[in-house]
From TrEMBL:
Signal peptide: none annotated. It comes from the Bacteria. Homodimer. GO terms for molecular function: formyl-CoA transferase activity. Pathway: Metabolic intermediate degradation; oxalate degradation; CO(2) and formate from oxalate: step 1/2. It comes from Pandoraea iniqua. Keywords: Transferase. The keyword Chloroplast does not apply. Substrate binds at G248, G249, Q250. Involved in the catabolism of oxalate and in the adapatation to low pH via the induction of the oxalate-dependent acid tolerance response (ATR). Catalyzes the transfer of the CoA moiety from formyl-CoA to oxalate. It catalyses: formyl-CoA + oxalate = oxalyl-CoA + formate. InterPro entries: CoA-transferase_III_domain, CoA-Trfase_fam_III, CoA-Trfase_III_dom3_sf, CoA-Trfase_III_dom_1_sf, Formyl_CoA_transfer. This is Formyl-CoA:oxalate CoA-transferase. CoA binds at residues 15-18, 38, 72-75, 96-98, 104, 137-140.
Length: 416
């Protein structure tokens, strides 16, 4: 099966998570992604949080599948010449170095554009160009705080809290991938490349737009009726942390199920969708609530929503999270078990769909990774293991026209 991005050559000058997540996605869909890494060390994540001594860490393997690895010291004259050759032959260069690092290396946008006017140069930075923090180095949690997510996550009586989901890193990589694909289509129209930039702060803000919605509602009316603070608690002038409240118009909460005393994940998320109220009452054995004016409408329920959740927890007390969902799904109630990572790793549906895949690795043996979350009717991405450091250096240099002798000289100059 041919892949839509076949023939697109990408210089993958990325490291850690945000950039690698972007280029990995493009590699799954057929792009030839050449990961350029510093000789001897490579991407820092190869060594971070290793679980097997002397083998690439999962942090690296899970973000760099389907790529080739070229070691190249782009600060040496010889290394710069190789990179220039590569730039002339490539469609996209992706990087997420600290601000200014690529320029210091001598590869400014102007220089890259001069070398190859068709090249798309895609960058991730912590903050956007011209931002008063544009010089900052940024990691995941820094972005979650700067993007408004942390101030609105967690419980009202605790500190701002970051999410386990990589809103700053992988999310930014996904935004960048959309930018690159857009620029590729644009190039088809104009024949020219362009600069594509995504900041981690902006990508987090893009996912926090409902909280900006809430800020404006709060400014206007002074309260947010779907938050636990309503109607008994106090609101200040900023969007509060709402615990596990539903973010839309449907109240919801994480509720205890059988075994919660010993199992930290024996919970379900339960949503009280307005039109499902009647089936909820029937499921709970509370048919009298259907017409009770204190319960019949969403507005009437809100002042005692936590008493309702308590009643639902009493109903859940003798049911596991899976049993509960199996009953509730029949009543069309939006709900799900709180799944642990262990349960996700072994979930047969996720294995069957290719969302969780096991891939071979030359040194590690096989490892689990997250496959493509995007499903196509005409493409089934095949996830392959990540490359060893420099595994494809000679192959890529030979493709660029370097002879064995010239490759030997690059070795001697410590450029590869
Ligand atoms: N050959 C020669 N030098 C190389 C090289 C190569 N193949 N690859 C990288 N380098 C150099 C860079 O040019 C830079 O040199 P300089 O500081 O002398 O200009 C140096 O390695 C370090 O790069 P840097 O990006 O500053 O790494 P860091 O470990 O200090 O910072 C981050 C890491 C992630 C904080 C930083 O890169 C950053 O803020 N990136 C943008 C936001 C981002 O993507 N964050 C991470 C999300 S997962």
């Amino acid at each position: 099966m041919s892949k839509p991005l076949e023939g697109i050559k990408i210089i993958d000058f990325t490291h850690v998570q945000a950039g690698p997540a972007c280029t990995q996605l493009l590699a799954w869909f057929g792009a030839d992604v050449i990961k350029v890494e510093r000789p001897g060390s490579g991407d820092v994540t190869r060594n971070q949080l290793r679980d097997i001594p002397e083998a690439d860490a999962l942090y690296f393997t899970m973000l760099n599948s389907n790529k080739r690895s070229l070691t190249l010291d782009t600060k040496t004259q010889e290394g710069k010449e190789v990179l220039e050759k590569l730039v002339r032959e490539s469609d996209v260069l992706v990087e997420n170095f600290a601000p200014g690092a690529l320029d210091r290396m001598g590869f400014t946008w102007e220089r890259l554009n001069e070398l190859n006017p068709k090249l798309i140069v895609a960058s991730v930075k912590g903050f956007s160009d011209g931002h008063h923090y544009e010089d900052l180095k940024v990691y995941e949690n820094v972005a979650q705080c700067a993007g408004g997510a942390a101030s609105t996550t967690g419980f009202w009586d605790g500190p701002p809290t970051v999410s386990a989901a990589a809103l700053g890193d992988s999310n930014t990589g996904m935004h960048l991938a959309i930018g690159i694909l857009t620029a590729l289509i644009g190039r088809g129209q104009t024949g020219r490349g362009q600069k594509v930039a995504v900041s981690m702060q902006d990508s987090v803000i893009n996912l926090c737009r409902v909280k900006l919605r809430d800020q404006q509602r709060l400014d206007r009316v002074g309260f947010l009726e779907e938050y636990p603070q309503y109607p008994h608690g106090e609101f200040s002038d900023v969007v509060p942390r709402g615990g596990n409240a539903g973010g839309g118009g449907q109240p919801g909460w994480v509720l205890k199920c059988k075994g919660w005393e010993t199992d930290p994940n024996a919970y379900i998320y339960f949503t009280i969708q307005g039109h499902a109220w009647e089936p909820i009452c029937r499921a709970l054995g509370k048919p009298e609530w259907i017409s009770d004016p204190n319960y019949a409408t969403a507005q009437a329920r809100q002042p005692h929503i936590f008493d309702i959740f308590k009643t639902i927890e009493e109903w859940l007390a003798d049911k596991t999270k899976f049993e509960a969902v199996d009953i509730l799904r029949k009543f069309d109630i939006p709900c799900a078990p709180v799944l642990s990572m262990k349960e996700i790793a072994n979930d047969p549906s996720l294995r069957a769909s290719g969302t969780i895949v096991e891939v071979p690795h030359k040194e590690r043996g096989s490892y689990l990774t997250v496959g493509s979350p995007i499903k196509f009717s005409g493409l089934k991405p095949e996830i392959t293991g990540s490359p060893l450091l420099g595994e494809h250096t000679e192959e890529i240099l030979a493709e660029l026209g370097y002879s064995k002798d010239q490759i030997g000289k690059l070795h001697t100059a410590k450029a590869i």
